[in-house]
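ok trying this again, last paste got cut off
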Amino acid sequence: MKSAYSVFIIILLSGCNTTQTVISKETIVKHDLVNIQEIDPTLLVDLKYSTNDNFMEMDVYGNLEICYMRRLPAEMLLKAHNILKEKYPKLRLLIFDGLRPRSIQWILWNTLTDVPESERSQFVANPKSGSIHNFGAAVDLTVATHDGKPIDMGTHYDYFGELAFPRLEDSLLVVGALTQDQVSNRHILRTVMTQAGFSPITTEWWHFDAFPYKVTKQKFSIIE
């Protein structure tokens, strides 16, 4: 049986061809986007929105299976990966999402029909102003073994709840909702990302921004 989210997205996408190219060659050239696996073939990629393994239970990326980012954030990601491999040779970064066009952001936003719009931005950035993902300067990721098995972070990707909040990890550890290994694994990810210049957010252990929103907006334009 399809979930309510799935039914909603099927209706939303009716008449749309999800096999069309989400990011065109013209967009790649215009915005100086790079395929992150071309600058570092050892990076692992599993674009969750190009599968059914996401909170919508729908593939909204169609044939897009390449992770693109702006060049500078991509180079920062390469630095983070090198730091990780130097400290933990058997571990790799596993990327869940990079550039996300604003057209896809609208789909995510409109999926949360049971959440009031005033509260929705706690889980998904409002497409009107745009997520830093929409500028190609944010990345969602985890740490995995070299053969692609994610290490335990305590929740799955896109978990909507306090267990995913970095700001609550200390208290969640005290009450036993998270284990020391899970918190330590999150610290590994945050350490390599922040040493490369990325900033974490307080509500998603997997999300990192290359620059603050104001700086991002000054440097780049939103990719529709």
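PB: full thing came through this time. The CA atoms of residues 159 and 171 lie 18 Å apart.
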